[in-house]
Amino acid sequence: MSAEGDHERVTPAARTSLRPRLSARRFRGGAAPGPDPTEALETGVAVAAGLREPAGSAAATEALRRLAGLCGAEAAGLVRPGLPDSWWGPGRADGVALAGRARGRRLTEAGRTALPVGDGPVLVLAGGVGSAAARRTAAFVADALERARLTDGEAEAEAARLRALRAQISPHFVYNALTTIASFVRSDPARARDLLETFAEFIRHSLAARGDYVPLAGEFRSVEAYLTLARAVLGERLRVQVRVAPEVLPVPVPVLALQPLVENAVQHGVERSPDGGLVQVSGEAEGDVCVITVDDDGPGMSPEHARAVLAGTAEGAGLALVNVDRRLRAVYGPDHGLVIETAPGAGTRIVLRIPRFQPGVVI
């Protein structure tokens, strides 16, 4: 896969049984054997996962059924302000009413106990659940809900970073690209048509992509579209080399993980050099890691400034790099952010090292 120019590389439903699955007798001493630890752990994990599901859903109801089995409750409910209540077992109406009367404090009436689990939600347990067991169950539910809230917050932060990247597509570049296309309408209609199709591909990928991840091949197509348009605008000032190994093309990557880095190389490398410059993009496999590099031979920067760029403290530049860096770290861990290799007068290289296989990262 290549863009215009030379081709060389420069390194750098809920189950509704009327009896909980785990009998309360298994938790109350006496001659009955204790619970199987593995089964209890697996049930706890399933409960935590189910409580993350939409309120009132079959999965949430199933989670409460399992929770009741763990603590020996005859019924269990989770009431959250502004959301449908989730309930398993008899006495739903009375349990929801008790939760409404609890008002942020523990309240016991008619064999039912309402326990606050965070700021707003109330857990209701019915039956002979001891005070200590009820407290531990409420703490478990509160922790599960807090973890779900943090997970949702991370997802929203990722979506916000992606929206920010899309909003940062340079209006100056878009204007220049359209102006250049218009200039060819009369003199070279075929080239104008080709460039317009390239522009449409660039916009489609940059603005209309809906998934969290795309194959690396899709990112490289977007890069090629961008570089083709940039060369139409900058002419011979921009020289391009793109090389990518076929084995990394199917690797899933976050949307817009690569194109903003190439745009940064053009804007801060080539356009700032009087004679233009060279942008090189490569992708290759190193064992279980996909290594992507974006090089330019522009003016470069001090290592201190590069660190400030990734820290988000540099003035006037680097927001796209910060967003890409934070998205990569959020997905792959703190060791997989951007690496900038640069020095004044020595150009800039940006390196991404992405696991070729990452749990949860699928297209």
From TrEMBL:
The protein's enzyme class: transferase
Entry's transmembrane regions: none
GO CC terms, sorted: membrane
PROSITE patterns linked: HIS_KIN (PS50109)
Pfam families: HATPase_c, His_kinase
Gene3D superfamilies assigned: Histidine kinase-like ATPase, C-terminal domain (3.30.565.10)
Extent of Basic and acidic residues compositional bias: 1-10
Sequence segments annotated as region (Disordered): 1-39
Reactions the enzyme catalyzes: ATP + protein L-histidine = ADP + protein N-phospho-L-histidine
InterPro entries on file: Bact_2-comp_sensor_kinase, HATPase_C_sf, HATPase_dom, His_kinase_dom, Sig_transdc_His_kin-like_C, Sig_transdc_His_kin_internal
Single GO MF descriptor: phosphorelay sensor kinase activity
Entry EC number(s): 2.7.13.3
Residue span(s) of domain Histidine kinase: 258-358
UniProt keywords, alphabetically: Kinase, Transferase, Two-component regulatory system
Name of this chain's protein: histidine kinase
Organism of origin: Pseudonocardia alni (Amycolata alni)
Lineage: Bacteria, Bacillati, Actinomycetota, Actinomycetes, Pseudonocardiales
